């Protein structure tokens, strides 16, 4: 039986593939992916709200799957494709879900919005034509203090209609 390689307690060199770009970092092994994205890489679209995996504001994609970046160690994300809210848009062209969130007023304070968008966009990747129940299931772990859930559902369904 081979033992896994130990890292730490000091900083460890890792490579993160974020939004299609390989980034070399030196981080303490205890650094969460959310902290690395925001504090080290300056990608502040990913929000840290509860920092306990309860609100889903920090949702990003690992290999196309939504994950809570506050509950994922950056070192564990090495070697995986990470997509943040900044990575959904193509230049000035927003992702259809981002456009629909704006059009359907699916955000108020905006703190939960990046995580909601990431989960809704992931839903459309795996199910291009969801119904309202599927959208509600996709955002079930998201906490929105402003109560924009009906607008989020409407926006996601509208984005699904636009996708080919």
What does this 3D model show about the protein?
The structure is a single chain. The radius of gyration is 16 Å and the shape is elongated. 36% of the residues lie in helices and 15% in strands. β3 (59-62) and β4 (65-68) form a beta hairpin. The chain has helices spanning 33-40, 74-77, 85-88, 96-103, 113-126, 132-138, 149-162, and strands at residues 12-18, 21-27, 59-62, 65-68, 81-83. The mean pLDDT is 95. The chain contains 7 helices and 5 strands. The chain folds into 2 domains: 12-88, Ubiquitin-like (UB roll); 96-162, Orthogonal Bundle (DNA polymerase, domain 1), CATH 1.10.150. Strands 2-1-5-3-4 form a 5-stranded mixed sheet, with helices on both faces.
Topology:
Blueprint: E1 12-18, E2 21-27, H1 33-40, E3 59-62, E4 65-68, H2 74-77, E5 81-83, H3 85-88, H4 96-103, H5 113-126, H6 132-138, H7 149-162
Parallel strand pairs: 1-5
Antiparallel strand pairs: 1-2, 3-4, 3-5
Helix pairs in contact: 4-7, 5-7
Quickly describe the structure.
The chain has helices at 33-40, 74-77, 85-88, 96-103, 113-126, 132-138, 149-162, and strands at 12-18, 21-27, 59-62, 65-68, 81-83.
CATH class group of the largest domain = Alpha Beta
Tell me what portion of residues adopts beta-strand conformation: 15-25%
> Superfamily at the CATH H level of the largest domain?
Beta-grasp domain
- The share of residues in helices is 25-40%
| Classification by helices and strands | alpha+beta
Major sheet description: 5 strands, mixed
Number of domains: 2
Distance between the termini: 49 Å
Radius of gyration: 16 Å
Architecture per CATH nomenclature, i.e. the level-2 architecture of the largest domain? Roll
The count of helical stretches stands at 7
Which descriptor suits the 3D outline? elongated
């Amino acid at each position: 039986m081979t033992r896994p390689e130990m890292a730490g307690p000091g900083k460890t060199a890792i490579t993160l593939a974020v939004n299609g770009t390989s980034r070399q970092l030196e981080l303490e092994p205890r650094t969460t992916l959310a902290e690395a994205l925001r504090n080290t890489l300056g990608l502040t679209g990913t929000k840290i709200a509860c920092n306990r995996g309860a609100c889903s504001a920090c949702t990003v994609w690992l290999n196309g799957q939504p994950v809570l970046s506050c509950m994922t160690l950056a070192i564990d994300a090495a070697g995986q494709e990470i997509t943040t809210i900044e990575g959904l848009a193509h230049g000035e062209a927003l992702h259809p879900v981002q456009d629909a969130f704006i059009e359907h007023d699916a955000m108020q304070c905006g703190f939960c919005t990046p995580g909601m968008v990431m989960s809704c966009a992931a839903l459309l990747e795996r199910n291009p034509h969801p119904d309202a129940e599927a959208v509600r299931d996709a955002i079930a772990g998201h906490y929105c203090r402003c109560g924009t859930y009906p607008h989020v559902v409407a926006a996601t369904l509208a984005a699904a209609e636009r996708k080919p």
